[in-house]
Amino acid sequence: MEAAFFDLDKTVIAKASMVAFGRPFYNEGLISRRHVVRAMYGQLVYMHLGAGEQKLARIRESVLRLTRGWDQERVRRIVRETLEATVEPIIYAEAAELIAEHQAAGRRVFIISASPEEIVQPLAEYLGVDDAIASRAQVDAEGRYTGEMAFYAYGPFKADAMTAVARRDGIDLAESYAYSDSYTDAPMLEIVGHPVVVNPDRVLLKLAREREWEVRHFTRPVPLRTRRVPTPPPGPTVALGGVAAAVAGATLVWWRSRGRMLPPPPPTPWERVTRRAASWPLPHRGPRG
Known about the structure:
CATH topology of the largest domain: Rossmann fold
Order of helices and strands: EHHHHHHEHEEHEHEHEHH
Shape: globular
CATH architecture of the largest domain: 3-Layer(aba) Sandwich
Number of strands: 7
Mean pLDDT: 76
Structural class: alpha/beta
Strand content: 5-15%
Helix content: 40-55%
Radius of gyration: 22 Å
CATH superfamily of the largest domain: HAD superfamily/HAD-like
């Protein structure tokens, strides 16, 4: 049996899954506006510069501290109730298509992520894959997070988990596929016969070139419900595009001829982040638990 293992953040979805659920957690009163802004800023850095092991370790520790005392069942409920609205628009079309191709070829498909299982498992079910491997937090007798990790699906531990699953399910890793964006996932890429790097960070891209691994770039986070809409014929689209360009050019000339100022430049990513978080209404602070 063959399989395909997909990393989650920046491979299947276009942003970090913990950040994606920032607004639902905020609305439920689990996190503050300050936490949201900091998380979004970290997301910008992560998306454009990548994150090394030390930075990822700091992020993990800060998340564990933040979630200490949260009720696990409450988190699961929030994720399941908001999953479609939160995640559906940011799933890469290319990833969804690849998952379908592997399933059509008879391969088992796994999502494997350092993100918590409370997020990864429902998302895997939503995507229709066979199973998920994710980080597991420790919970106390009352079902609240202790701030400790029971299993961290990261780096070499991902490879260990894949090996264990392969033994359990009779999967031939030499004939299987793995997809990831981060050099920290080199161990999971190394143990399969078909490693593929997706939107790689600089270190992983260098490693992929050295080892002649396949490199792909996913750029189309399109809602699943719109992916089967037929593409309009090229003729009218091109014509309309030319009309739109002409109108835009004429408008620009008119504005200049009137001596008026052109509209201000679009806001920077950081300005968009802070404005978005500042505009959110204060969450309802109901009873915790």
